[in-house]
Amino acid sequence: MAGKARLPFPAVLYRILLHFAVHGAFQACRCVQGAQHRLQPSPRLDNVGFAYRCRSSARRRFPNRHAARKRLAISGSAHAMTAQRISAIQEGQLQPMFGGALEIPSPSPTLLIETHRGEAGRAYTRIIPRHVLTLFLEPAAVWHSADGASTSHIFIPANTVVMSLRGRSESVLWLDPAQVLVVEVSDRALAEAAGTLFDAQSFELMPSPGVQDARLSALLQALHAEQVSGYGSGRLFVDGIEQALAACLVSRYSTRRPKRRVRTGGLSPSRAKRLVDHIQAHIGSPLPLDELAACAGLSSSYLSRAFRETFSVTPHDFVLDMRIKRAMELLAQPGNSILDVAQLCGFQTQQHFSRIFRQRVGVSPGQFCREL
């Protein structure tokens, strides 16, 4: 001890402070690096952004993280459940007929439209709560049984329509994979069609495992094309297809065929004027068929027929013509962009507006503006 030189007190204190400063900086770097490894994106909350899972060292710092995650998960689930699904009773529970996410929901709350792929080997027994039409976009083969009847092997060509009737039990085994378009038709639309075509709204559809009906197939193919395009034509187009589907089903596949009720004439002048005024005042809105029917004080199915008799076009075509007419007036005014005009006239996208404008006018909106 006597041979060693002692440092003065200030130098000792300086070394001690330097040691703690270096050690603290080193620990801080390790904490940052550890945190970067511990923070991982969680796929469980894709609908609400990224959630991060931390290890036990961070749990003490965030005691309420489980409650926050639960609130986010509930919020994301509620958002995902807003779109209605075509459902069936399977294994005692009401659940979607086909699994998988719904890419683009139908713009109509009464005509549900979904596209799915049936996989070979998939089997199920279910009860359909509402009438469902299935258009096979590809050929397929299935084993099928309805209401406990004997099972039969059915080959289904492409463009075949299969009717699943409300309240019936069916068992299906897919033998081939196939892409299908599934459509749920509302009882209200069918009842309105029966009330318009016949003297009574009561009807019963015939069981049809598979039918080759060019009219039904064409209507469902039009729905499929509209779905692929993102429903660019809007809800009014889908409403028109729904009325046509209901009329076709009731007139061709009903077990009871009451005496047809004869109707003459179209809309009265006052009703026609009221409709035109309503369309002009709400040209930027979707203008669904039930809204027009309520304006006229008629059922949707009767309005479709009476409207065509009065104006010689369907409500959808009439509204499109009025939208294009209004668009031409706005494009003639300086300062209006094509996108603004499309939105003001009720078109969902500029691309859809340009396509319809070229079809009706013969030139694109840009060329129309340049030629003014």
UniProtKB/TrEMBL annotation:
<dbReference type="InterPro" id="IPR050204">
    <property type="entry name" value="AraC_XylS_family_regulators"/>
</dbReference>
<dbReference type="InterPro" id="IPR009057">
    <property type="entry name" value="Homeodomain-like_sf"/>
</dbReference>
<keyword id="KW-0804">Transcription</keyword>
<dbReference type="GO" id="GO:0003700">
    <property type="term" value="F:DNA-binding transcription factor activity"/>
</dbReference>
<protein>
    <submittedName>
        <fullName>AraC family transcriptional regulator</fullName>
    </submittedName>
</protein>
<dbReference type="InterPro" id="IPR018062">
    <property type="entry name" value="HTH_AraC-typ_CS"/>
</dbReference>
<dbReference type="InterPro" id="IPR020449">
    <property type="entry name" value="Tscrpt_reg_AraC-type_HTH"/>
</dbReference>
<dbReference type="InterPro" id="IPR018060">
    <property type="entry name" value="HTH_AraC"/>
</dbReference>
<feature type="domain" description="HTH araC/xylS-type">
    <location>
        <begin position="273"/>
        <end position="371"/>
    </location>
</feature>
<keyword id="KW-0805">Transcription regulation</keyword>
<dbReference type="Pfam" id="PF12833">
    <property type="entry name" value="HTH_18"/>
</dbReference>
<dbReference type="GO" id="GO:0043565">
    <property type="term" value="F:sequence-specific DNA binding"/>
</dbReference>
<keyword id="KW-0238">DNA-binding</keyword>
